[in-house]
Amino acid sequence: MRMRPDSCRGCPLDAIAEGFMVPTGKGYYGVLLVGEALGEKEAEAGKPFVGAAGRQLQEAIEWAGLDKEGFWIANAIYCRPPNIELEGMEYEKEAIEHCYRTNLGPLIERLKPKVIVPLGNIPLYALMGHKQILKTRGYVYRRGGAFVLPSVHPSFI
């Protein structure tokens, strides 16, 4: 399990969460896929989407005739909240905002993706400030220099 960096200090999850992830992929498509938070398998591996939702994502990518390595993959929350509970918890908003400021936002600035795909309500909130994934999925939005194309989380499929 990967130790969390000092940038996690001040986050409400710092003392109660497990693990920390490093974004994956080579990104040659110019697309950043953003999941919600680490699950148990992901916290152990220190990588996003390596458990059941990762298998679902892999199948969807292969079905489209693409290569998973061609995407950058990260999460809105870089650690595993207790019992994988984030949405609706008292620490949700502050944790998302902290992780965006210290991890996801700087990643987006560094990578400069052409397209960002928030997979679920948590990453949609981190990127767009609202949680209406079922109403916004399939529509294209602009955020800075990137297009944002919301979609449901692979575990929802």
Say how many strands there are: 5
Give the % helix: 25-40%
Separation, N- and C-terminal Cα atoms: 28 Å
Instruction: Provide the structure class.
Output: alpha/beta
Largest sheet: 5 strands, mixed
* Mean model confidence by pLDDT: 94
**Count of DSSP H/I helices:** 5
From N to C, what is the helix and strand string?
A: EHHEHEHHEE
Shape: globular
Gyration radius over CA: 14 Å
Instruction: Give the percentage of residues in beta strands.
Output: 5-15%
Biggest sheet, spatial arrangement of strands: 2-1-3-5-4
Low-confidence stretches: none
What do these coordinates show?
The protein is α/β, with parallel strands linked by helices and 157 residues long. Helices cover 32% and strands 12% of the residues. The chain has five helices and five strands. It has helices at residues 40-45, 52-63, 92-111, 121-128, 133-136, and strands at 31-35, 72-75, 115-118, 141-143, 146-148. The protein has a five-stranded mixed β-sheet with strand order 2-1-3-5-4. The protein is globular, with a radius of gyration of 14 Å.
Features:
157 residues; alpha/beta; five-stranded mixed β-sheet; 5 strands
Brief rundown of the structure:
The protein is α/β, with parallel strands linked by helices and 157 residues long. It has helices at residues 40-45, 52-63, 92-111, 121-128, 133-136; strands spanning 31-35, 72-75, 115-118, 141-143, 146-148.
